[in-house]
Specification:
single chain; 406 residues; alpha+beta; Lambda Exonuclease, Chain A; three-stranded antiparallel beta sheet; 14 helices; binds iron/sulfur cluster
């Protein structure tokens, strides 16, 4: 069954995974965003340079390094807008510019004259279908480059990455995107059973290679369909706070960020009087008072404990149970109690007591040898029966203090 209205993509699935609310804003509510981050901007320019370079390679023209660098510089200059956002602290615009340029240079020098394979297509937009277990969904992907390796007689899918984190082999082996593009290639060239998947981590001048077996592709189809089903049945699109929020275009309307973003722009005097800020400030003051009082109550209880110990000692020494004061009294209660052993403190005695209770038909009165229940029963069972279990019981002296009004 196909949902004819929706065309899925890796970024659509990724967006749902990152934050459901962001997914809703973008794909359901279709709220346009004007935010352009420096990472996306630089990535776009590097992609453009490599696209143009390989378009010419495809028709037999290998341009010089100066040409590639010149194209990078020109495109940057013509496309740069001052509202492009730099999120990372301590990184300058110049730093981004230089790193992008270095990536182009190191890529060029590594692969020139670009004849390792034959270029089939660059920045190719492909619509394909994910099918499994009678279900099918339309997909759209943009493949950075498709090559044909004449020697190995295989296709290669190349992906340019300009992120500042270096992809690991494990990430490449489990990556969905190029796996999906392998499926896309199979739709167009059904004999493309073996496809080399190549990621170029451009800021590190590193190439990471992986591939997928037929069974892995089938697993991928199933996982993707499961994810789509989760997306289509989702009714609650909750925000998910993460490091990605700093790059999210919806911060100004997101319930997690709307207020913080609004108040951070206010001058100090307006900030203090902003109604939300006032509520938080008042609450914070009460919380701090609560903590202070909790600390004081703890100190008072510690003092009380010392007095209780002194009162018990006083009562024992003077053989009294009431200690008199101006308006109140302290009632001292010292008792020697019989107690059932717990399983933890004396397993043997506990087991023997249990056996005796079963034998004497008393076990159902305490359900299990539950200590609370047993201690209660010990107080009400007849003397004759207590005699029978006496040897299993323990004695404990309990001392307590009650504060009473006169
Ligand atoms: S700011 Fe963060 S939590 Fe809010 S929508 Fe964007 S990614 Fe989600």
């Amino acid at each position: 069954m196909t949902n004819d209205n929706i065309v899925y993509s890796q970024s659509r699935l990724g967006s749902f995974d990152d934050c459901r609310l962001k997914y809703k804003y973008h794909y359901i509510d279709r709220i346009e965003s004007e935010l352009d981050t420096i990472e996306a901007f630089r990535g776009g320019i590097v992609h453009k340079v490599l696209e143009e370079l390989y378009k010419l390679v495809k028709v037999g023209t290998v341009k010089s390094l100066e040409w590639a660098v010149g194209l990078y510089e020109d495109t940057w200059e013509k496309s740069y807008q001052p509202n492009i956002k730099i999120v990372k602290k301590g990184v300058t615009l110049e730093g981004y510019y230089q790193k992008g340029k270095e990536a182009v240079i190191s890529y060029y020098e590594r692969y020139k004259p670009f004849d390792q394979t034959k270029v089939v297509d660059t920045e190719r937009s492909i619509r394909f279908t994910i099918r499994s277990d009678g279900k099918e969904y339309a997909f759209l992907g943009i493949l950075d480059r498709i090559d044909w390796n004449d020697k190995a007689q295989t296709f290669e899918i190349h992906d340019y990455k300009t992120t500042s984190s270096l992809m690991t082999q494990e990430e490449a082996d489990s990556d969905w995107q190029l796996g999906l593009y392998h499926i896309a290639l199979l739709e167009r060239w059904p004999d493309a059973k073996e496809v080399k998947l190549v990621w170029h981590s451009l800021l590190f001048n590193k190439e990471i290679v992986s591939s997928r077996t037929g069974a892995q592709l089938e697993d991928l189809r199933r996982s993707v369909i499961k994810n789509i089903e989760e997306i289509e049945s989702c009714e609650e699109f909750h925000p998910r706070k993460s490091a990605l929020c700093d790059w999210c275009e919806y911060q100004p309307i997101c319930p997690l960020w709307k207020h913080p973003k609004h108040v951070e722009t206010l001058p100090v005097n307006q900030y203090k009087n902003e109604p939300g800020v006032k509520l938080v400030t008042a609450y914070a003051e009460l919380e701090s008072k609560k903590q202070e009082l909790k600390g004081k109550i703890f100190e008072i209880e510690e003092e009380e404990k010392k007095i209780e110990e002194a009162a018990i000692e006083f009562a024992e020494k003077n053989k009294i149970t009431i200690i008199d004061g101006p308006d109140n009294q302290l009632k001292v209660d010292i008792r020697k109690e019989q107690k059932a052993p717990t399983k933890m403190e004396d397993t043997e005695a506990w087991q023997a007591l249990r056996d005796t209770l079963i034998k004497e038909g008393k076990y159902n009165e305490v359900s299990t040898v539950n200590n609370n229940m047993l201690n209660y029963r010990i107080r009400i069972w007849p003397k004759e029966f207590l005699e029978k279990i006496k040897k299993f019981l323990k004695y404990q002296v309990s001392k307590s203090i009650r504060f009473i009004k006169k």
